[in-house]
Amino acid sequence: MAQEQSPPSGPDLTHGVSLAEFVDGKLAGHVGDQEVLLVRSETGIFAIAAHCSHYHGPLGEGLVVGDSIRCPWHHACFDLRSGEAVRAPALNSLDRWRVEQRNGQVFVREKLEQPAPRARNHGEAPDKIVIVGGGAAGFAAAEMLRRREFRGSITMLSNDAAAPVDRPNLSKDYLAGSAPEDWLPLRPDDFYTEAKIDLRLKTEVTSIDINARNAVTSGGETIPYDRLLLATGAEPVRLPIPGVDQPHVHMLRSLDDCRAIIASADGARRAVVIGASFIGLEVAASLRARNIEVHVVGLEQRPMERVLGPEMGDFVRALHEEHGVIFHLGDTVTAIDGKRASLKSGGVLEADLVVVGAGVRPRLALAEKAGLAIDRGVTVDAYLETSVPGIYAAGDIARWPDPHSGQNIRVEHWVVAERQGQTAARNMLGQRAVFDAVPFFWSQHYDVPINYVGHAENWDEIAVDGDISGRDCMLRYKSGERVLAVASIYRDRESLQAEVVMERAG
Length: 506
Ligand SMILES: Cc1cc2nc3c(=O)[nH]c(=O)nc-3n(C[C@H](O)[C@H](O)[C@H](O)COP(=O)(O)OP(=O)(O)OC[C@H]3O[C@@H](n4cnc5c(N)ncnc54)[C@H](O)[C@@H]3O)c2cc1C
Ligand code: FES
Description:
Blueprint: E1 17-18, E2 26-31, E3 34-40, E4 45-49, E5 63-65, E6 68-70, E7 77-79, E8 85-87, E9 96-102, E10 105-111, E11 128-132, H1 136-147, E12 153-157, H2 173-176, H3 189-194, E13 197-200, E14 205-209, E15 214-217, E16 222-224, E17 227-230, E18 234-236, E19 249-251, H4 255-265, E20 270-274, H5 278-289, E21 293-298, H6 305-308, H7 310-322, E22 326-329, E23 333-337, E24 340-343, E25 348-350, E26 353-356, E27 360-362, H8 365-370, E28 378-379, E29 391-393, E30 398-402, E31 407-409, H9 414-428, E32 440-445, E33 448-454, E34 461-467, E35 472-479, E36 482-489, H10 492-505
Helix pairs in contact: 1-9
Bound molecules: flavin-adenine dinucleotide (FAD) and FE2/S2 (inorganic) cluster.
The site of FE2/S2 (inorganic) cluster has 10 residues, from loops.
């Protein structure tokens, strides 16, 4: 997704700048009409595009770690030498320029060619890789396989009607009506043909024959594999409420779901959102942006308290109330009869549309049927391999040994799914890459982004630094002296620093 770019600012870097002008090892300027960032690491000075290739985050506010730079917004990581996006959510490389140092001055010269992808197969490379799932993990895996010069066949089977999309956007800008269509696809359609990725949409995989090494589709086709990645994601929980099957009652997972909500929102005056967690509240914010009156009904007493704690929960509630959202907490919808949603507490809410955001369940049916080890998710080892050799799992379905918490965890985060897809791809090519990324997610409510690093299911204490209501804070979720996770608002650098500390703590 790109955003409108402001005209280049800062010095013309072709004229040379002094090292003394660098602040925190960085200096932003331009080359022609392109914004360029000079970065000084321990081993050299690099000139790279000033903005992240994900959502255009300002890399000048990022963190340099070794010979890499991390984006302040959603923690993508770029190799300063090659420009490669080595960690999702960015997938595209950064432009780079040649740097020359003379008499204490740094000059930026011509733009460098993108380095050719390097084949990094180890051991016996497979011929045929099948990916089940066309979401975050599946796409990131396919992209990484080609980036690593895998020359065998890649077949990507997805029961979705749409090619892989930027799913987080479906509850945010796209639903709010502020993102154009072309922000959504992770890659344009011709990418798949050019990269020789056989993407088969509307294709349901019904079983995996682990002995014959075939994926079997609902149409009866058998697709052989040498390595298989299961990345079937999660599906929204269906509430057993009378009336949820009506056309104006929606759930949100796919682009089609989102388009159906947008169609219902057209001309709607009032909406009821069932569920006061991340997706429900992001939907509420997006519907408010469409000037629809929004009522949020949630069982919890405070939104998002289970994940973010009471202080952040109160803030999130107040933020939505400032924007006109009306909460019905500690309550639930017991029936939807046409436009009338009945509350357990006895009231009735009129709703032209209803969106159910009551959490998700990992889609485990295929893995269960194939006999893979299951533990509230598909059990994988540190290399994301399942209990059946040659079959890997990534994303919302995978429960992996997280070295940071010391627990086997499963999370539902976009960035984690993509990074797992990338790691699984390397391992399917014979590398032995441990998945040891510290979990990260973000959530956006109006103009307030909440970033979260780490994993804390329980904690003893939340240490709050700064001012939550002033939107300038860092919350540390602690168990004893150990920081399990941090949540922050507009403390991007500290969030990146916390990530590095957690990585180094092991
Ligand atoms: C609206 C919305 C907003 C979100 N916002 C955020 C956010 O802001 N931040 C964040 O961190 N996370 C967010 N998430 C969560 C994030 O999108 C998921 O964690 C991520 O998509 C998981 O990736 P995945 O590849 O495991 O699954 P998915 O992206 O769901 O992909 C699964 C794929 O498998 C396909 N599939 C499933 N079963 C079969 C089958 N039997 N045969 C063939 N294909 C099959 C599906 O069609 C789909 O293409 C959001 C999710 C939603 C729905
Ligand atoms: S804008 Fe850089 S990671 Fe999202």
